[in-house]
Amino acid sequence: DIDLLKKALSELGKEYDQAKVNTLASDYETKKKNLIDYNNQVKNNILSGISQTTSSGGASESNVVILKAEKISLESDDFSKLSAAFKKAERSYNIAKVCKLFSQSTNNDEYKIIIQNMNINDVGYSDYVKKRKADRASDDVLKIEIKNAIVSTIGKILDEKY
Fold first, then answer.
1. Rounded average pLDDT over 93-105
2. Is the CB of residue 142 less than 8 Å from the CB of residue 132?
3. Half-sphere exposure of 4 toward its Cβ, with a 13 Å CA cutoff?
4. How many whole angstroms separate alpha carbon 152 and alpha carbon 158?
5. Cβ of 142: how many Cβ atoms within 10 Å?
6. What does the pLDDT look like over 30-73, one tens digit per residue?
7. Which of 32, 58, 71, 64 is nearest to 46 (CA)?
8. Which of 9, 73, 91, 148 has the smallest set of CB atoms within 10 Å of its CB?
9. Whole-number Å distance between alpha carbons of 6 and 111
């Protein structure tokens, strides 16, 4: 069981090499900057509108009232698009970091923890491997299935966290 896990983790290390992690980190930082820049632009536009009202002898900042608000479609507005792109980039980058970390592990106790806690298709790791071997699945096929299950499990954990 541990040998298959080691092989799957080795595959993860190849898939999530440092170049890929760096690319995902760069994408994450770009998406983050885009979202922050957009928020700052909106804030500055609002503050600019308030200062124009107050400087023209209108309402003071303390008693500004918005008389009309436009309905925004959440599926199509810029903030939602930028926010969704940021969350997707953040998730991909976090998955890559964890996969990279797992792939570098050499500690048998860590392997045992993964084996004890990972489910593949709602079946415990050891039971899944036994069943697939009984079905005559090759080690190469199992290695890929385990690798995909690791990535999926990391994604599920991240989705629960956020």
1. 93
2. yes
3. 24
4. 10
5. 19
6. 999 999 999 898 888 887 776 555 555 554 555 554 544 454 44
7. 64
8. 73
9. 8
pLDDT of residue 52: 55
Report yes or no: 56 and 9 within 8 Å, Cβ to Cβ.
no
Q: Distance between CA 62 and CA 32 in Å, rounded?
A: 32
> Which amino acid belongs to residue 61?
E
Q: How far is CA 154 from CA 21, 31, 99, 161, in A?
A: 15, 22, 8, 11
Contacts of residue 71, Cβ cutoff 8 Å, sequence gap at least 6? none
Q: Is the pTM of this model over 0.85?
A: no
End-to-end CA distance of the chain: 31
Residues 6 or more apart whose CB falls under 8 angstroms from that of 150 comprise: 8, 9, 12, 99, 102, 114, 118
